[in-house]
Every structure is written in structure tokens, then in C-alpha cells.
Write a structure and sequence with these properties.
Strand content: 5-15%
Structural class: alpha+beta
Distance between the termini: 39 Å
Oligomer: single chain
Strand order of the largest sheet: 2-3-1-4
Largest sheet: 4 strands, antiparallel
């Protein structure tokens, strides 16, 4: 008798004698596996795949230290819901309102203070950030000479600046043609989906607490979308593995516990099924 047959016979004998214990042990193993799947943490980091001495890591670090981070983040501030009222009042659009421009500058300041982690002393997450409000601030301070004030006090003052200095070809990157949607362009050195996710949550929390009425804030960008898609694919693989394991366990449980599939005859069945003697 080979070792495999002996092992299978021993497993069969154990299952026959201690069926209840074996069943509950299997349930416990499945439960532990399911819990482990739920606790899996997904973290995609394309730069982190390379060694610290690899030229890719070295160049990414130099970009962060000497210029700005190599990873772009786009924060979209949408005030489309205010557009119709502004057009009725013959304004260019919502983002000629000093209150909305001030919110853009405050959001920039918050981005510069955002941290790369939850632990105390975590470094800043954002290297640089720029928006349409920076252009308006630069125009105002250069024209008025008032360095202590960030923006004009009235909407008429903003409109007057735009009449003199606004150039669509230079501003369209930062504000839509109808002045209803503004973009903040930020750069970060973070390449981990977990770290970037932490930054995105900080921005969303700040927006929920401080965004003016009718203004929505969305964090997007090619890197954010790519990392989110990769993380979701990984989570989907874990969920698929979990479902497959549960289905296989259920099928195997029904196979070995169903009385209809039990085919081993009892001694009594053997005695009653004998053919009569011809003698």
C-alpha cells in the first residue's frame, strides 16, 4: 500500500469517527480565511518597486528635492450651480467672486499644510500648487501696490482686472471659459496609493467643512485614477478568491455530508442481499 493511500485512509477514518469536530474545524478555517481576506490592505507603489539605488528612484527624489514632485494632482472646484445667476447679472462667471477666489487661496494653503501620513511629524505631502486665484492675486498686488491684501474687495474690482490683464490662452488651464470651474494643479512626491489616498481624504474633509454653498470639490488626475483602478483590480481578485473558496467548501461539504451519496453497504445489507443457494 502506497503512502498516499494510507494517508487518505487515515483522513477518511478520522472524518468518520470525529465528523462533528472535523466539520467545525473546517468552518473555523473558512471563517479565518474570510476574515483575513477582509483585512487585506492594498497599496500600489510603482516607484517603490525599484531599489533605492535604481536610477528611477534617484531621479524621482532629485525632482522632488530640486524642483517639485513628479506626481501631478488636479483638484477641480466646480461652481456650475451658480452659473445661471451670474449670467443673469452679467458677470463673467462664479470665479470672479472674491469669496470664491479666497476659497481657492485657502484651499491652496491647506494643500501646502497637508501631511503625508497620520503619524506626528509626518512631512508635507504637496511640493507645489497653483490656481487661477494666484493669477488674480498677482495682478491685483502688482497693479495696486498693496502687498498686504490678497484680492480685490469687490466683484467689480476683479472684473476690472480681467478687462485689463486677462488672456484666455494663459488662463484656460486654470479656469473654464465660463468661469464656472477652476483647477488647482498640485505636484507631490508621493507614489504610494495608500499615502495618496490619505491626502485625498484630507482634501475631501476640508472641502466638506469649508466649501461655500453650491461649490463641489473633486480630486482627480491621471496618477490618482491609475492607482485607484489598480487597487480596485487587486481587491476584486481577493473577493473572487474568497467567493471561490466559499463555494468550493460548500460543495465539498454537501458532497461528504449528504446521506444520498453514501454508498458503503452495511453488514446487514450484505447478509440480506445474498442469492439463495441452488442446493
Amino acid at each position: 500500500m502506497c503512502i498516499r493511500d494510507s494517508f487518505l485512509r487515515a483522513i477518511g477514518a478520522l472524518d468518520t469517527r470525529h465528523g462533528t469536530i472535523v466539520t467545525w474545524l473546517g468552518v473555523a478555517i473558512v471563517a479565518a480565511f474570510m476574515l483575513g481576506c477582509l483585512l487585506v490592505e492594498v497599496n500600489t507603489n510603482y516607484i517603490g518597486f525599484f531599489r533605492r539605488t535604481d536610477p528611477v528612484r534617484i531621479r524621482a527624489r532629485r525632482i522632488h528635492e530640486e524642483l517639485a514632485g513628479a506626481v501631478p494632482i488636479s483638484v477641480v472646484v466646480d461652481a456650475t450651480s451658480r452659473l445661471s445667476k451670474d449670467k443673469e447679472e452679467e458677470w463673467r462667471g462664479p470665479f470672479t467672486d472674491p469669496a470664491l477666489l479666497a476659497f481657492l487661496l485657502d484651499l491652496e494653503d491647506f494643500l501646502r499644510r497637508a501631511r503625508a501620513g497620520e503619524q506626528p511629524g509626518a512631512p508635507p505631502a504637496i511640493d507645489s500648487v497653483v490656481s487661477f486665484a494666484d493669477q488674480v492675486q498677482l495682478m491685483y498686488q502688482s497693479f495696486s501696490g498693496d502687498k498686504g491684501r490678497r484680492l480685490p474687495a469687490t466683484r467689480e474690482g476683479v472684473e476690472a482686472l480681467l478687462d485689463f490683464f486677462y488672456k484666455p490662452e494663459s488662463a484656460n488651464k486654470y479656469v473654464s471659459a465660463d468661469f464656472a470651474v477652476a483647477h488647482l494643479y498640485a505636484r507631490t512626491y508621493l507614489t504610494s496609493s495608500r499615502a495618496l489616498g490619505h491626502v485625498v481624504r484630507q482634501i475631501n474633509d476640508y472641502a466638506r467643512a469649508h466649501a461655500p454653498k453650491g461649490v463641489a470639490v473633486h480630486v482627480t488626475g491621471e496618477t490618482i485614477l491609475l492607482l485607484n483602478a489598480t487597487d480596485e483590480i487587486t481587491r476584486g481578485q481577493v473577493r473572487s478568491l474568497l467567493i471561490a473558496f466559499v463555494v468550493i467548501f460548500a460543495l465539498m461539504g454537501m458532497l461528504f455530508t449528504s446521506c444520498l451519496l453514501y454508498t458503503s453497504p452495511s453488514p446487514r445489507d450484505l447478509s440480506t442481499s445474498r442469492m439463495p443457494s441452488s442446493a
